[in-house]
From TrEMBL:
Keyword field: Chemotaxis, Hydrolase
Entry keyword Hydrolase: yes
UniProt xrefs under InterPro entries: CheD-like_sf, Chemorcpt_Glu_NH3ase_CheD, Cytotoxic_necrot_fac-like_cat
Designated name of the protein: Probable chemoreceptor glutamine deamidase CheD
Amino acid sequence: MEVVKVGMADLKVIKAPGILTTLGLGSCVGITLYDKRSKVAGLAHIMLPSSKEIKNNSNKAKFADTGIELLLEKMISIGADRFFLVAKIAGGSQMFSFNSKSNILKIGERNTIATKEKLKELKIPIVSEDTGGNYGRTIELNAEDGSLLVKTIGHGIKNI
């Protein structure tokens, strides 16, 4: 079975059989979309909540708002039906503790919120998530059945 790696600020789509994987999700969020009828799977590894806050925003996959839209477009182009898509998300952890109350430092939480807002706007339901905490995650999305394997250091492995 083919395993396709998705880097930081990157996204990929595949049709079953195959696995999409991304390593080292800290404050980043891994957004997976899956259409069980066409067995089309997509994974985006977003780093920041909004492309509107950054001047150099040509890489759409880096941001929750534009990354999810681009992922949706690419999935539809290989046969997914947007009305059958479901989302699973992982990551968005707070990797460092800050004494400050500043929101700018809460990138993980802001990434998770922005991801949920965008998916809601696109009417794509989130069927499961593994977000928050203060540890990294590696995820694997199986295009055959849409299962998402979440591996952590010190917090075990689970299928969501």
